[in-house]
Amino acid sequence: MEKTLVANVMTRYPVIANPNESLLSCAKTMVRKKVGSLLLIEKGKLVGFISQKDILWAMVKKPNADFSKIKAIDISPKKIITVKSDATIKEALGKMNKTKFDRLPVVSNGKLEGMITVRDILSFHPEIYPELEEFAKIREEQEKLKRTTLEREKALSEGICEECGEREMLYRVNGMLVCDSCKSSI
Known about the structure:
CATH architecture of the largest domain: Roll
């Protein structure tokens, strides 16, 4: 199984965009296609890569900018980390771990062949790389932590829980003001 090639696992038709497309248009494409990144292609060649994080970065750095006028290529990282289709999954995973990217464009002679993601590898054969499962669990835990933090920020105020009578931070759930522990049991 360690000889499984990227070409056997990759997504063959990733979502692409023109490098001169606006950030607004790219963001709409990402939402519509339910993807986290777009590959920027010009004349069949990979010239850039833009992710949701890149767009968020641009929004933070230039909050008053007109995103319908900023080109995707303008915020694309200059150096694009890629992998070849004849590389093994293990090599691709090593590159992902080293660069901290969870997706890599698959390129041969400068021409885009596809995209490989951690999800592609996991769905192909999860038992091959147990560390990927651990990577996915860590990500899931990070997402849960983010959600919990956001929920805590949504707490209304401190007061008496209508369910248990304890004095704690309260949340509105089904029209009632309840504490965190009662909220999870409702």
